[in-house]
Each structure stands twice: as structure tokens, then as C-alpha cells.
TrEMBL record, chains A, B:
Reactions catalysed: 3-dehydroshikimate = 3,4-dihydroxybenzoate + H2O
InterPro entries in the cross-refs: DSD, Glyas_Bleomycin-R_OHBP_Dase, Glyas_Fos-R_dOase_dom, IolE/XylAMocC-like, VOC_core, Xyl_isomerase-like_sf, Xyl_isomerase-like_TIM-brl
Native source species: Streptomyces azureus
Name of the protein in its database record: 3-dehydroshikimate dehydratase
Pathway where this protein functions: Aromatic compound metabolism; 3,4-dihydroxybenzoate biosynthesis
Keyword Isomerase belongs to the record: yes
Length: 598, 598
């Protein structure tokens, strides 16, 4: 199917919008009137620009407050329409969106609405234009899609059809099944938007909180299935605007948008993408650093042993149980301090995983590898983290370990068993995009978003996981842009005995994040502990949480650059990440930073 | 009355919060439990810190999910309460807030709730503590203040009272008049918050959108009047949290908070502040600049004549009609480019205006003046703009003009008649504060906030005016922090003939902001114009708007530093500021900036 996007969905000047849409692979655009008005290009120039970029102009939008008005008002509206149809001719747009009226002048008279829309359609037909009439969820008299369709049907005009918008339909709670009663050829256009399920004024909801399909709570795919059953063969078009996208760069937003449509097309059986290949574990986490010393000292205290070095690059491998950390001191794209740069994901079929990622517009990373290296497929996540699809110790697949030569024997069975989860701070504009990426590209499941109070601002956090929890990634973002120097990425290491692991770490010279005594007084009030247990936690700075399944004990190292480590003990199927303790942890990290000036 | 603020209303560490509250002049604080948990200070140290700062600990909050639960659960709750009462003893807090339960375990049984709250109150009394029971708007079985009061009343326990929270009461649409049926001595605490009138989920509304009294849409003063009639003599306490305040600095937020309470106390007749002295006009606007040339060239082209220079400072006065612009090249606090630094407001009683501003916590500016200068009272607005209360040409008052010596004769009657309005870009965190400041301190009226789409982000704009429109200030802010280099402040100059003024400006070498031709095609579709009229507008870049009252024609100069000028013709009582044209103007300014690299 053809895909389209409304220019209002992207930020910038009209030409920036068109370029971003074309680069992301859209076939066409809806031109939002205000974007044209504010552009120095003539309509002819816009038309030529679109043609150069391979974009069709699928819709001109919107015309408002046209129908069911007194005669003199309607005469003025026709005059306005005449101007706009001439403009559309110059622009090369053959369909115009007419929204149901919100004017106080409009009357509740379907027959009058049908008659006036017919007269508008007469005028349109003379210019080779089709009129797509859409019910706004907050329309004065017409606010549901079936009502708009009844008016269109009774008008019976060949140049008059309806436009369906998933937001207006699903936000009203209308049953989209009735769409199947509309002949496909009378559905002149289909606009798609998702939205989080908020109980709020629908106009505000629409204006500020729309998002791309799959990023919100609506069953947009279900609606599209109903539309396709009618025989509709127009484009799937995105009309999405929210306060965040308005500030984001148009290029990444357009890619995000198109990815959401590809996933949607796959869901409704209209796109043949490579199957998702869900990762089955974390092969490694790669840290880049200009100075390996502080990092390797920390790894050593955590019980990691350096077991191998890369044959051709300044990268060492540190292991403990199934936790593997690469320390890279070579040139990297982002070399402004110590940070988590890449994640190796165990993949049952790395090449297929990469093919799916590429089909879903993930930037494929150049390999820049020596000829003898094992092939390693990698793409960039929206936050820039490199994701490697790889295999560890499987005879049927090239092993990334083969690029390393052993330096020390593998360590004895150790306290840290594996990487429990990775926490990645997301750029402010790309939080919803990140969740969709990890779901759509990697086939992970996205959990509910939770709010976390930092002393200096609210954070939102959302985890994506595979079915058995062997891959868990926590995505975090500020509720608004903020100084995020304290919001480091982190690697959580799973241990069966966090107390023993924390003690060993401290004995090895490691320094744990101090936790205020008041926190433990509160734990004592909320839970019952064995004798001495709480004193141990207090001594080590271990935090405690409990959910319906089990208990969670965790503690934190100091931060090196923009990375810190967490030791976690997850008992009896505890599912969370200790979110109730996050405010205490964040306050403690701020306090340490203030003390050390770091 | 005593005033108090919940620590959750301010950002930062607990000690930062306490310091900010004390500096703003609050008498006490509510200690939010999580703030204590995250603090490295012991309860005794917090108590001592409060005492040092002159703050009482008025409330410890909150205890949740206490009442109407099965016996074993309640036993655990009492155990928890015992810990907390001991903590409160150490903290020196004698009142605890208990919120109505949201637990799925809670049952709908008022008798059980009353009995269990009584048992809690028994325990509290033994520790010298009072229990204030509050209905959360989203409480499971108890969600209205009168229901909470009925339970408290039927318990009949001396250590059990109710806590009223204006948000929980007004967000539910409850009638606050019933508060008067509660004996004042049983109202143990009063929490105040305002909120914008949003139709949304009440929990989300409460968590993200509360604001200080007078900043939202609730009749908080009306509610307080009902409470005062009961004889309540506890503190007025602010419990306000929203996503913006969480990121703002605690110091200014605390001042903003206290100012809102002062205005509220005045409204309910419990504070004797100096009367507002509403400004009657704009005496001058003062621009500071490191280089006067570009600015004075612009002023000259606009028809201003330099009429005087300050006797002791490098400041010149430029006049045209009643519009007066000061150009200051001397040292100023903010010297990073050309900007609008100060506004002179005509005041019927400058000294009284300054007294009110000072009483409402506006920073009074040092005069730094020569001994012979006329006294000039000035305060700083929240955005740092200096506001001078002054008089022009009134024999009974010192005239600020007396500090200037004439250099050229006053200009002949000119096209520009006066300053129509001033547009000030606000720091992101202080938009609501700015409106409250201009209303409370200056006695201006705040109009509705409107959204304006900039190509790179949404803006919000709100005008404050006096009754006859001779003082109009438009306050603008980004919906989120953004690069605001293009969002300059501006001075709008009123003319009776914008076409003539624009022509004269251009003939004098001035450069007007070019407006796209598409905009005029749209005007032609929307309005009817006399022959040639639209061509004139198009030629000059004049924008057009119309409201129920009249028409508005306006055009813009290029930007110098962070300031530009607008020429406006306001006919037949047009009340707005051309907001529908703002997206086109902003896009044109972005385009110019891109072209010039400025």
C-alpha cells in the first residue's frame, strides 16, 4: 500500500518536512494549509519540489466550517473554496479534506449539510477535485464517522466521499466495525494516529498527545483491517501532532513515522517484512572509554576477570559467569567520556535479525572490520546505541568470541551470573520511538511506562523484555529536557546473593552508593526482616522491594563517566526494577555528585 | 495567618527545599515522606535545621491505605504507624496526614473505617500526635470531603480530625459551602492548590498539573472563605506539584508560592497589603545594547527622533508621539546583546506601587543613581525585566524626564502614537509565575492563554492588560524548553495608518519582514478587500486579522540582537494581538535567520 504523512506531523519549514518525508521513504504527503501559507515557495514550486522528491500530494487540508450554515455564510464559504480549488490545481492536489463544522453558526440539519456539501462537490468536480468529509471528534453537530458517512451517502455525489481518521473514531469510543458498511470507493482518504489512553478533553488530547500507530493505546490495526475490507485502496496516511514532535528534528521523526506504518502494515497482512528474530540473551555490553583504568578497577572489584583481547582492536573482554563486558579504548563515534556504546544480543539468526532491522529502517552500521573477523551484523538504536546481533559458543554460527584471543583462563563460577538488565537514557524527543523500535525491530515486549521522581525533575521509564526475561532493557527519559549529567546509563548484574557480592566488592576496594538511614527506618516500618538483615542492608547500601511475585535486593556502584553498575538479586520471579527505590537512589547520586563536584 | 508549604512542592534535596521555603518567608513546612527518606540528615537533624531556619514542621505526610481493611492488614498498618509516630517524635511533627485508602483490600464500610481510624488515633495520642484524615479525589471508597468528615465525626476521637485539600475538593466539583458545617477545631489542616480547568483523569491532573492559588481556574479563595468561617486557625499550606516545578529552581518557586498565598490572603481579607496601583500607560521601554548604531538606525527609520540624553548615564531618549524608547549603552546586568531590559510604567502613585510590589516579594532594585536624579522606584519581574514606576509630565510627581537634558526639539506629530504592547519571552519554568506577578503586583488583568505553532515547537502566549488597554504586555513561553534565539522580545508601536508608516519606514531605509505570497492568497480567500488593498499589504508585508470587534493590521522589522519592532494599526476596538498570523511571522523570522545565518 502507498504511505503518506501530513506535513503537520513534522517540524520545520515546508521544504524540510518534504525532504524528511521523502528520505524516510513515504510515497506522498498531505499538505497542511498553514505549512503552505508560511512557505516562501509558490504552489507550483511546492509541486515541483514534491515531484523531484518522488512524493505525490495526496491531500490538501483542512477546509473548516463549510456546511450546514445560513445561505450568506455558505456563499462566502464557496467563494473561499473557489480560491482553494484554484490553489490545489496549482499544487497538483486532487483531494481536499473538509472537517465537520465547529462553527456556532452551523445548524443541526443533515439535509442542509448534504445539500451544501453537494454544491461544494459540484464546484470541486469542475476543478477535478474530490471532497473528503471527515467527522471531527469535537464537531458541533457531526462528531462520529457513521454520521459523516450518512450525510455523504444521502448527498450521493460522485465527487464527495468520506475521510476516516483513527483518532477521531477511536477517541470517541466508536465501534470501527461499522466502517465495513461504507463502500471502499467512497472512502476517499484514511488518516492514522494513535494516542495514549488518557481520560481528557478530546480536543486537547488530539492537539497535544497524538502519536504514531503502535506508540499509543488505540487498536489502530483493528481499524485499518475494517477499512481494508471495504476495498479502500488509497494511502495509509499519518496525521500526528504533539508537543514533542513539534520540537524534534523532522528527519528522525519521519523515519519513526514510517517505521510505525511498516509495523502496522505487517500487522494487517499488507507488508512482507522479514520475521522478527527475538534475541535470547545479552552476549555482551560494550563500554567505550578514553581511560580504561577506573573502569577496569571497578570491573575487577566486581569480580570480573579480563579473559581475552580483540585481535585487531584495542578492546578487552571481561567475564564473570555469563556476564561479558567489552572495554573499548579505540576510536569510537562518541568519545566524550566513558559510556555504554553497544549491546551484543544473542540471536538465533543474526543475519535475519539484521534483515528485519534494515527493513524497519534501522541504520545498518558499517562493519569496519578486518577481513579475518567473524561477520557481525549491527544496527543503531534511536539513541545511537549500537546493537550487535551475534552468537556465543554456537557451532552453527560464526562466534564473535573468535575475534578475541584468550589472555587468561575463564573465571571460576562467580557471584555475578549474567547481565540482568541494561538501562539506557533516551534523548528527550525519542522516547516513544525507542519503545516502538525495540518492539518492532527486536520483537521485545514493552511494559507499562512508570513515573519516577528525581529531585530535579520527573523521569519516565519503560522496560522492554523478551519472554523469559533474559533480555531486559530499561528506557528512561526526562518528562522535559533536563541536565542529564547525573542520569547515567547503567548495567545491572544478576547475582544469587547480593549481600555476598556487595561485601566482596567492598572488600576488593569498591565503593557502594551510600543510602540514607531514613530509608531503612522506612523499610522497617513496611516489612518484617530477620534479625540483623536490615542492619546488613543498611551497612552495604542495599535497597529492597517486593512485588506480588517476589523480592528484589539491589545496590549501586559509584558512577564512572556516564556509566554505573548495579548488583541485583531477583527472587521468586520479581518482575520489576526496584522503581519505588529510584527516587532514593537518584537523590543519593545527586548528593554524591554535589560532594565530589563530579 | 501562618503559611506553610509542602516540601514536595519544591525541587532539590530536603535541605535545599527547607532553605528556599524559609527564605521566601514561609512559617512552616509539610515534610513529604519521600523527601525525608532520601535525605542523609537524621530526623533530629532535620528538626534542628528547621528550627535554625525559623520553620515549624506542621505536617508529616502521607500515610496511605490505613483504614477499612481486614484485621491482619490493619495490624500491619498499626505496626507501620508505630514506626512513623516514633519518627515524627524525633522530627518534632505533631500532625500526620492520612489519605483515604486506594487499596484494593479496602472495603466500603464507614463504621470499620471510623473504628480503625479511632484505633490509629489512640496510638497517635499516646505520642502526642493528631491524625488528619483526607479524602483523595480518587480514593477507593472515600473520595469527597464530606464523606471523610462523616467518618471522622462518627469516630468522635479527640486526636482525629480532617484535612481539607482544595484540589481534591474542587477537582471533584464538590460544593465547598458544606465545609462550614465542620467545626473549625476538627479541621486539623488545610492544603491549597489550584489547577487549570482540564477535563482529564483526576489522578493525572493532580500529579502533573497542580499550580499555586491564582494560577489556575479553581475558586481557591472561595473555598478558603468557607474554611475560615468554621474558625479554623491552622496554617494555609501549599501542596502543589507539577512537572514544571519539579525541574525549576527551589528558590524562585518558593517565592512564587508565597506570593500566591499573600494574594490569596488579601482576597479573603486576611492580609493588609498596600493597595494595587494599576499603571495607566507605558512611560518608556529601555533597550540595552553594546552597540547603539543598528538600533538607532532602526529607530530613526521608524520615525523616532533622539530628543534627550541622560545627565549622568550613557542613555539617550528617542521619542515619537507618546512612544518613548531609551537606548542604554552603559554597563547593565545583562550585557549579552541588544535586548529589552526595562519598562517604565506610568503610575498614579509610584511609591505606593513599589510598596505593593515589595510586599509581594518583588526584588526591589537598587537605585544606583546620582544624588540629583529624580527618585525612581523599580522592581524586577520574574523574567528579570526591570519595571520602573514613574510619572511623565505630572507636576505633582518627580518626573523621570528631569534626569534628561534635551538635545533636540520634540518631534512633530508623528505616525507612531504610542507603544501598543510589549512582548516578553519568559523563562520556561516561570510562565504561570509571570502572569500571577503581573496580576497580583501590578493589578493587570490576565487574558486567556493561547497556543501558537512555531515551526520548531509550540509556544504559549498570554496577555496582561489594564482596563483601557494603555498597558498591554504579552508573555510568551515555549511549551517545552527550546532554543529561543529566534524568539525575541518585541515592542509594538501603535499607528493610525500602518500602510503609511510602513512605507515611510521602508523609504527611510528600513527593512520589513517579508511575508510569503501564499499568505495573501489565503487572505483573499477569507476576506474581501478593496481594489489594490491586498497588493499593498503584500508589497509591504502587512498581516491582517479580524475579530468580533474590528480589524488589525501589522508588520515587523528585522531583529536586532534579541529585539524587533512591530507596527500595528488597531481599528474599531480589535482586542487581540494577531495570534492567527503568528505562525506565518515566526516561520518568516526563522527563514530570515537561516538566510542570514543570524
Amino acid at each position: 500500500m502507498r504511505t503518506s504523512i501530513a506535513t503537520v506531523s513534522l517540524s520545520g519549514s515546508l521544504t524540510e518536512k518534504l525532504t524528511a518525508a521523502a528520505r524516510a521513504g513515504f510515497d506522498g504527503v498531505e499538505i497542511f494549509e498553514n505549512d503552505l501559507l508560511a512557505s516562501p515557495l509558490t504552489p507550483e514550486e511546492v509541486r515541483a519540489r514534491c515531484a523531484d522528491l518522488g512524493l505525490t500530494v495526496d491531500l490538501y487540508q483542512p477546509m473548516r466550517d463549510i456546511e450546514a450554515v445560513p445561505g450568506d455564510e455558505f456563499a462566502r464559504n464557496l467563494r473561499r473554496a473557489r480560491h482553494k480549488f484554484e490553489l490545489m490545481r496549482r499544487l497538483g492536489a486532487d483531494t481536499v479534506l473538509v472537517c465537520s463544522s465547529v462553527s456556532p453558526q452551523a445548524v443541526d440539519d443533515d439535509a442542509l449539510a448534504a445539500e451544501q456539501l453537494s454544491r461544494l462537490a459540484d464546484l470541486a468536480r469542475d476543478s477535478g477535485i474530490r471532497v473528503a468529509y471527515e467527522a471531527l471528534a469535537w464537531g458541533r453537530h457531526v462528531s462520529t464517522y457513521d454520521h459523516a458517512w450518512r450525510i455523504v451517502e444521502s448527498a450521493g455525489h460522485p465527487a464527495l466521499g468520506t475521510c476516516l481518521d483513527s483518532f477521531h473514531i477511536l477517541s470517541r469510543g466508536s465501534d470501527p466495525k461499522g466502517i465495513e458498511d461504507i463502500p471502499g470507493e467512497k472512502i476517499f482518504f484514511l488518516q492514522l494516529a494513535d494516542a495514549p489512553l488518557l481520560a481528557m478533553d478530546v480536543l486537547q488530547w488530539s492537539r497535544h498527545y497524538r502519536c504514531f500507530p503502535g506508540q499509543g493505546g488505540f487498536d489502530v490495526a483493528g481499524l485499518v483491517r475494517h477499512v481494508l475490507r471495504t476495498g479502500y485502496d488509497g494511502p495509509l496516511s499519518l496525521e500526528v501532532f504533539n508537543d514533542v514532535f513539534r520540537q524534534a528534528e523532522a528527519g528522525p521523526t519521519a523515519v519513526d513515522a514510517r517505521r510505525s506504518l511498516l509495523v502496522l502494515q505487517e500487522t494487517v497482512g499488507r507488508a512482507a517484512l522479514p520475521e522478527p528474530v527475538v534475541p535470547t540473551g545479552v552476549a555482551f555490553a560494550e563500554l567505550v572509554t578514553p581511560d580504561a583504568e577506573p573502569l577496569t578497577a571497578l570491573l575487577g572489584a566486581l569480580g570480573f576477570i579480563r579473559t581475552a583481547r580483540h585481535r585487531g582492536k584495542p578492546v578487552t573482554l571481561w567475564e564473570q559467569g555469563d556476564a561479558r563486558i567489552l572495554v573499548n579504548t579505540g576510536p569510537a563515534v562518541r568519545r566524550d567520556g566513558t559510556q555504554l556504546a553497544a549491546i551484543g544480543l544473542e540471536s538465533p539468526d543474526p543475519a535475519a535479525a539484521a534483515r528485519r532491522a534494515e527493513a524497519l529502517l534501522a541504520p545498518v552500521l558499517p562493519r569496519r572490520r578486518a577481513p579475518e573477523d567473524a561477520p557481525l551484523d549491527a544496527v543503531a538504536a534511536p539513541d545511537g546505541t549500537e546493537l550487535f546481533f551475534c552468537a556465543t559458543g554456537r557451532p552453527d554460527l560464526p562466534d564473535w568470541r573468535a575475534d578475541f584471543e584468550d589472555t587468561d583462563p575463564a573465571p571460576a563460577p562467580a557471584a555475578v551470573r549474567r547481565i540482568d538488565h541494561l538501562a539506557l537514557v533516551q534523548p528527550w524527543h525519542h522516547f516513544d520511538e525507542a519503545a516502538l523500535f525495540h518492539r518492532g525491530v527486536l520483537g521485545l515486549h514493552a511494559q507499562e511506562s512508570v513515573d519516577v521522581a528525581d529531585p530535579y525533575g520527573l523521569l519516565r521509564s519503560r522496560a522492554v523484555t523478551n519472554a523469559d526475561g533474559s533480555v531486559r532493557i530499561a528506557l528512561t527519559v526526562g518528562a522535559a529536557p533536563m541536565d542529564d549529567t547525573v542520569h547515567a546509563q547503567h548495567i545491572a548484574l544478576a547475582t544469587d546473593d547480593v549481600v555476598a557480592s556487595a561485601r566482596r566488592f567492598r572488600e576488593a576496594g569498591g565503593s557502594l552508593l551510600p543510602v540514607p538511614a531514613n530509608y531503612y527506618d522506612d523499610l522497617a516500618a513496611r516489612f518484617e526482616f530477620a534479625d540483623g538483615e536490615l542492619e546488613t542492608y543498611r551497612d552495604l547500601g542495599i535497597l529492597y522491594d517486593r512485588d506480588a511475585h517476589g523480592a528484589f535486593r539491589h545496590c549501586y556502584t559509584r558512577t564512572v563517566g556516564r556509566v554505573f553498575f548495579e548488583l541485583v538479586q531477583r527472587d521468586d520471579g520479581y518482575r520489576g526494577y526496584g522503581a519505588p527505590n529510584a527516587p532514593v537512589r537518584l537523590a543519593a547520586q545527586h548528593a554524591v555528585r554535589t560532594l565530589t563536584g563530579g
